[in-house]
Design a protein that fits this description.
By secondary structure, the chain is an alpha+beta fold. It has a single domain, classed as Amidase signature (AS) enzymes (Alpha-Beta Complex). It is built from six helices and nine strands; from the N terminus they run E-E-H-E-H-E-H-H-E-E-E-H-E-E-H. The longest helix has 21 residues. The chain is globular, with a radius of gyration of 19 Å.
Amino acid sequence: MFCGVYGHKTSHNLIPQGGHSPGGTQLAPPLLGVIGPIARSAADLALALDVVAGPDAESPANRLAMSLPRHGRLGSFRVFVLDHHPAARADSNILGALERVADQLTREGAMVARQSSLLPDLNVQWKTYQAMLHTIITRGDQSPARPPISAHQWLDLLDSQLKIRREWADFFRHFDIVLCPVFGTSAFPHTDEPDWRKRPLDMDGQPGNFGSQLGWAGIATVANLPSTAIPLGLSKDGLPIGIQAIGPFMEDKTTIAFAGMIGHEIEPPAIAL
């Protein structure tokens, strides 16, 4: 997203995560985090995924069964364009890139939609994602200011996540791809401010909320869906920008193939930073 390269967030549990556990834990099955490749092209993403994807050694009964891409040409895709989020904004550079892709898809003959009653409630998703993420990243924190949630509350979150996953499964019976921002701006100046609420973020000259930008990434993350980041040239300030293509669960090859087709139509940055 920030560096002008392709990146892929895999479907949940597609790549084993052995060896990636935080200190002092055994890495109980992660419910949000995944591992995925980064590459200069979508073709290299696909190649890398074929190499590293597979069942965990501790789950010998599992077998890898990724579906082939749903379509072989852009004009056959059914695409939902999502340019708004109840928590996260996007600046004119990112929204402009999203519109360029939507226009190109229309010219190619793809079905492009912007409204659907099937779209899961993004506000519910955001609240569920926030609560799950906070619980996971504060594990082991003994501060009285951050008391752990109860087991019953955690089970309620798992119920909410499962409902979200089922809603997206129904959505993707009618659509193939969701196009939306990965992050609402291009790369921003480094800051070591620990409080995300205080981190500065410029959005078309107006102050933005850094923490709420996780809303864009959280769409695919809380639903365990695959998402491919697509580089789409440079911002007005000369920085790389891009968007993401979210697809159905375990159909990672669909989002990667779609990203490759877009890359043939809209040149990514000439130099990946």
